[in-house]
């Protein structure tokens, strides 16, 4: 039995009420507002290792990890010390710096498809650069994306986009001109026939197929390896670019990302989250021949005042140094598996339908029988049950993503004790759900 007293959230409530008067919805990014799970969010005070503390001093085992970056654990001492040392030299240069070479080299060494890389400040920016690049390279406009995949909030990607867009029930967003999405064609994940059909209907017009090579923005969905292989084939046959958006999966499911995990190499890759070690970094990279189109090497324009920022490069380099050690991702997967196995056993014991899976340090479960192969399958999960589950776990000290359309993140800092404790708490919650 779990003997914790349920948490209360007085200070969080007070601060969030004030925040709502100051910022739309009280937040700087929609899913943080807990809209789809009900109740108000907790306001964080500090993070360390596998834990987060809120302003009421409640301590959580954290499986959000600032939405992915905290893969070696929050506020790692080595990262903090390195960032402080860099900070003594200044916060931003707006000029070339050696740290960019060092992180670029690490990315190129790690990610099979990447021969050259351009740094940005976010995953969204990386995806904006990427789509312009694939269009410039192929001199075609149409792209294929998948229902439930999120590629940041650029206009052309806000079509059936998963994540916060799915959570809020907005298949699209007002303010996005129809012309901006007209060339974005949507296929079904894990369904190669739906992709073939679009290629047939748009002969020699498809610039790229863009996907999350493991989906984290419709909840957690693994691709069939054959699906990825078939995408590799069909894009090559049609002179189209294959893009893996590894903003979430990069350096997380394996050091070389999902492309290493599944052994399928795209032409272009987008990255973010982990490569910034908690500071703002995104990146896109790929074959030299394609990347040399990017300005100033080539004519495709993309830029950034703060891009390649020394603090962010430092946090990224230090994080990567830890991740490149042997066995890290096997250990992450072992812990992810231990967690989902425990949750599934507890759910089944108490008569709940559940379907769960993991890859490296990324995992997820749905309260539905499964298997969940695409976004449509994911929508069969019970949102009301998820909302209650989320609140009850929160009140007992487990911080889970506040939407059933988000994946969970394991870190190197989570111990077996943390995971066992999480399963015990889940068992109690599931017995009452
Ligand atoms: N692509 C994917 C696959 C993502 O998961 C995200 C963010 N969750 C993005 C792009 C956008 O990144 P950012 O939030 O850093 O703009």
From TrEMBL:
One Pfam assignment: Aminotran_3
One GO molecular-function entry: glutamate-1-semialdehyde 2,1-aminomutase activity
Keywords on record: Isomerase, Porphyrin biosynthesis, Pyridoxal phosphate, Signal
Gene3D superfamilies per record: Aspartate Aminotransferase, domain 1 (3.90.1150.10), Type I PLP-dependent aspartate aminotransferase-like (Major domain) (3.40.640.10)
Organism domain of life: Eukaryota
Pathway: Porphyrin-containing compound metabolism; protoporphyrin-IX biosynthesis; 5-aminolevulinate from L-glutamyl-tRNA(Glu): step 2/2
Enzyme Commission numbers on file: 5.4.3.8
CDD domains registered for this protein in UniProt: OAT_like
EC class name: isomerase
Alphabetical GO biological process terms: porphyrin-containing compound biosynthetic process
Matching PROSITE patterns: AA_TRANSFER_CLASS_3
Cofactor: pyridoxal 5'-phosphate
Similarity comment text for this entry: Belongs to the class-III pyridoxal-phosphate-dependent aminotransferase family. HemL subfamily.
Protein name: glutamate-1-semialdehyde 2,1-aminomutase
UniProt source species: Chaetoceros tenuissimus
